[in-house]
Amino acid sequence: MPVVKFWDGAEMITVDDRPMPWHAGMCVADLLAGLPDGHLYAVVKMDGRLIGRPRFAGTQVPDGARIDLIPMIAGG
Amino acid sequence: MVAPKPISLKALNYQRPETHRGYTDHFLDIDLSVPTIAIGTIDTKIKQTFIGGKGFDLWLLWQAVSGQTRWNDPQNAICIASGPMGGTPSFPGSGKSIVTAISPLTGSVIDSNVGGYFGPYLKFSGFDALRITGKSAGDTVIFIDGVAGKIEILSMTGLPSDAYALSDMLSQHFAADKKTGVSVVSSGPGAANTRIGCLNFSWYDNGRGRVRYKQAGRGGIGTVFADKGLKAVVARWEQVSLKTNRPADLEAVRAVAKRYAREIVELDPKQNEMARIGTTHLVPIMNDFDLLPTNNFQYGSHPAAALIGREAFEKLFDPGFDGCWKGCTVACAHGVRDFVPFTGAYKGCKVFVDGPEYETIAGCGSNLGIFDPFTILEMNFYCDTYGLDTISVGTAIAFAMECFERGLINRDHTGGMDLSFGNRLNALELVHQMAAGTGFGTIVGQGVRRMKAIFAERFGADPAMLKDIGMESKGLEFSEYMTKESLAQQGGYGLALKGPQHDEAWLIFLDMVHNFMPTFEQKAEALHWFPMVRTWFGLCGLCKLPWNDIVPEDNKATPEPAKVMKHVGWYADYYTAVTGNNATPEDLITMSETVYNYQRIFSLKMGYGTREHDTLPYRAVGPVTVEEYESRQERYDRQLTETHQVDIAGKDTPWKVAALRSRREARYETLKDAVYKRRGWTDRGIPTVATVKRLGIDFPDVLAVLAENGVT
Ligand code: SF4
């Protein structure tokens, strides 16, 4: 019997509504490093939670995550 | 409850001046002492020079007071104005008012901006601005009825003192059958018993069937209001549409409003979600960047911060449309329904809490070591009810708590209370005491500057330590951002005209996070441009939030993303369309510069407004104590060695604290020099004659103030 593997939607994330590949161990800093303008973002929203740049390197991106890049520049 | 029968003390029937291109060209002048009601005119020169809003307020206030006037003199005036675009429905954030007076905290000019419907209703009733001087015997209500064309000064003995009950009753009494047509300005008992009273500006939330509030919080204007014997000022108006301002180009207003509103509806859900969670998103962000004031601004983060941020309040806020002016699509003015306080007069009752916003969460939460959203809600509710500014309350209690923990004061001084950080019941008890004018609350309610003097003179506390950790400048309590790692924001607070409030400049991200302005000159440029653009909103009756809290998707590709120039361009278009005066983005900056310099010279007239008043407590600049230094030792050691080339080998922490301090204090003084130069001021921080001439404010009385201060 051949093994039938069903794709379960894994290994993709969305960044600002666009699909992007995901890999095991990916952190937010890795994700932004792969974007042409990733250095501009100080805050991202991942699955509804806000994460600031000091936590980019230490925050893992889970498979299937939905990420919005927050252009936070001059609030307050 | 039925309102007490009013007794008319003075009445004036008037022919309502029509609004034309955003202006009525009239102001309402009320002297409570005589009492008199008069209507004044605003001529073209004044309109061109001062634009509206804060500009008109300052012009009216300047005429009312001398340099010797104190906050509780009858001559002190409370001035309230909207602005030419104020009252436009559907252009986001077009319902703001600006209030000014001589402050009981600073002794100088204070301004405070606020939402709610009062400013627009005042204007549509025929008045670009309102000035109230004099004092009444108490329980006085001013009723401005734009529908009937009548103004009355009324005595209404027996009104409730608590702000919610009062506004509810007065809305019912004056609304006829249309409560959305009434806006009430009131304060509360806390305003009378402290120097940190706020004003509540109401609007009627038809969806929820209740009166809602926004606060003109800063600088104790509510205290001035109470001192004048005022219970409330009520404005009544009926229909509001895009046409009510009679703009010069209705179609252009409609087009720019539609564009802006549509962009916000599309982008806010992807960005900060202010329509759902208000400004609570700032809590986790500030915490991540070590900017969330914790335990009286000692630290910038805490592991429990998540308990009081966005994730907590998205569950607590009552869903619904929450714009504090008609059609504001940012709609960030959220509240909590059916909250049950566990202390005070409302203990066990269901109440609605207007808020909290970020400032209240940080001021009455993390800065007090309190990480419980329900305590924050209760402090928010009672501050509003008592007419107290949540920022000053938070910062003042935080200071008292640190003094208690450091043994600078003790239970003998606090009436037996343990004021350790995190003591939520005693924090609440202090709010109740401030309102009642009892116990240790009477001292805390005087604000940080006076607490410092009392703790030193009466309790024997070390004045040097009090000076370093008492978070006030110019007499105003700090709003709730950490500035230690952002020199530009130290300038944003220390060089702000009224004192350390973030509505003039908020540069922390640009400076500390993005490092967009490494040189003193670049920081000085930012401390020119950003305060000017923010000042402009307060001239026009606008809210600053839509400008840069929701950002166009293509903004990042622009040369200076922080300025959000696409929006600034839309504001110039909006101004042009309403007033008929062509304006470019650069013109907006010049409009503000005029008023900004006038306000600086106004401070000078009141005996302030020079370099020595632009100082900061060292806590805002760097680590005061060994614990603060050691909590971020790696950061500070690196700065000493790499930025300042200091050899720290073998040095102990007190030595390093002192070494860092001398350098950071010197940097702040260098920044002052750069900013004064950029603003066209002398090295004492005074506008030069050339500057006032360039801006067209070289009036004889302005030049006389400069001359008295050696500037000719
Ligand atoms: S953005 Fe928020 S505070 Fe500003 S006008 Fe709109 S609802 Fe009011």
From TrEMBL, chain B:
GO molecular function: 4 iron, 4 sulfur cluster binding; electron transfer activity; metal ion binding; oxidoreductase activity, acting on the aldehyde or oxo group of donors, iron-sulfur protein as acceptor
Domain Aldehyde ferredoxin oxidoreductase N-terminal: 23-239
Cofactor annotation: tungstopterin; [4Fe-4S] cluster
Family: Belongs to the AOR/FOR family.
SMART domains associated with the record: AFOR_N
Gene3D superfamilies: Aldehyde Ferredoxin Oxidoreductase Protein, subunit A, domain 2 (1.10.569.10), Aldehyde Ferredoxin Oxidoreductase Protein, subunit A, domain 3 (1.10.599.10), Aldehyde ferredoxin oxidoreductase, N-terminal domain (3.60.9.10)
Keywords assigned by UniProt, alphabetized: 4Fe-4S, Iron, Iron-sulfur, Metal-binding, Oxidoreductase
Protein name, UniProt field: Aldehyde ferredoxin oxidoreductase
Domain of life assignment: Bacteria
